[in-house]
Amino acid sequence: MKVTLKNLTKIFPSRNKKQKADVIAVNDFNFEIPDGELIGLLGPSGCGKSTALNLLSGLLKPTSGRIYFGEDDVTDIPAEHRGVGLVFQNYALYPHLTVRQNITFPLENRKGKEKLSKEKMNEMAEEAAKLVQLENLLDRKPSELSGGQQQRVAIARALVKQPRILLLDEPLSNLDARLRLQTREEIRRIQRQTKVTTVFVTHDQEEAMSISDKIVVMKDGIIQQIDKPQSVYDDPVNLFVAKFLGTPPINCFDGCIKDGSLYIGEEKLFALSGVEDKEVTVAIRPEGFSLDEDDEKLFTCGLERIEVMGRDVSIVATHERCASSVIRAIVDADNLAFVNGSTVKFGLKRHKVFIFEKENGERIRF
Ligand code: ADP
Ligand code: MG
To answer: What is the Å distance from ligand 2's center to 46 Cα?
Structure first.
């Protein structure tokens, strides 16, 4: 089911007399989710992710704008008639019911023509349980399951109604690191198998990058960028997006453009064309530094320490123009022979270096 958001806006009026400003939690969202895709809504806490999701589910009414499922305008249709499956951070299972009863719960209240027989409900529950690989645990209570398994029950419960779209709000946040990884792969598999159009909300960039067909990066209720995860990483539109994606994070420096070349401090990094002279923020991805033998080494940093991580090596360095206390450069372990003493000279990969306006963080292309 294709989903379309048109000028979708949600304003929460200020309840506090002193704090006059209303909160624009979702500010003029316009995008289309193609049928069968998984879209990640990504941004820091408070940027409006849950609000956007709840507008899609029908739990919240928009201040303005429209929502379409396929060609149907569902904006005024209440949540229970939208055909959405919802999964939240806290699994919200009924503790006194078995897994089977939890999964069939949304089917129980159907009336009239829609009413299902006990056998049919059981069959549907078993099918949903199989999808999330819980078919052997149907008679357990939630307390007898791990967090990951409980979240899979919640997903099965959302899927049993065969929803038109599936909405997941930080579904992995309550799980420990290993289960989080496992369950996220599980969600991806289930989504691929069912082909249900899915919106996945998270503040965790790595999670969003690994699971999504496309990500929507948000800040203060405003969409910053929508694209495939790799495209957003490789081609961020502004400093906020560049900083929000990537571990270790991008390294930022005060720099300037002077006489057609890019500088950090006294060091000239490379020539640019078509950009006027000005102060800028220079941001370099950790993998943008290089120690290859035949690279021109032109960027000198203080060497703090070297952290070996198997195939790659993380060089922790310092620079007086760096916005944070340390720089992290990820280089090939084979090139470590070039590092000794208290400084390290790097080459730079030009396509891993971004330049941004000092005032507003907009990207300057060169
Ligand atoms: P996220 O899920 O990205 O953390 P939310 O969508 O929950 O963000 O919130 C976005 C903004 O809207 C926040 O500033 C939050 O305080 C505000 N907000 C959310 N729900 C309400 C509400 N019911 N009433 C007033 N303000 C709200
Ligand atoms: Mg939220």
So the answer is: 7
pTM score over 0.85: yes
Whether residue 101 is found in the same domain as residue 9: yes
How many other C-beta atoms lie within 10 A of the C-beta of residue 1? 18
Interval between CA 21 and ligand 1 midpoint (Å): 14
Residue nearest to ligand 1 atom 23, measured at CA: 12
Please list the helix, strand and coil fractions of the chain in percent, rounded to the nearest 5, in that order.
30, 35, 35
220 φ/ψ sector (left φ>0, alpha ψ -120 to 50, else beta) = left
Structural domain for 302, as ranges: 251-364
Closest CA to ligand 1's atom 16: 46
Alpha carbon nearest to ligand 1 atom 19, residue: 51
CA–CA distance, 299 with 223 (Å, rounded to integer): 35
51 lines ligand 1 (CB under 6 A): yes
Pair 139, 99: CB distance under 8 Å = yes
223 and 94, same structural domain? Answer: yes
Same domain for 235 and 274, yes or no, is no
Q: Where does 173-278 have alpha helices with state H?
A: 177-194, 205-211, 229-234, 239-244
Cβ proximity of 25 and 221 under 8 Å: yes
Residue written as token pair 């078993």: 126
Q: In ligand 1, which atom is closest to the CA atom of 203? A: 3
**Lookup result for tokens 């401090």:** 265
Which segments of the chain have a pLDDT < 70? 17, 19, 337-338
pLDDT digits (tens, 9 = 90+) for 151-210: 999 999 999 989 999 999 999 998 888 889 999 999 999 999 999 999 999 999 999 999
Q: Give the residue from 189, 211, 244 where a domain finishes.
A: 244
Q: What is the DSSP string of 253-271?
A: EEEEEETTEEEETTEEEEE
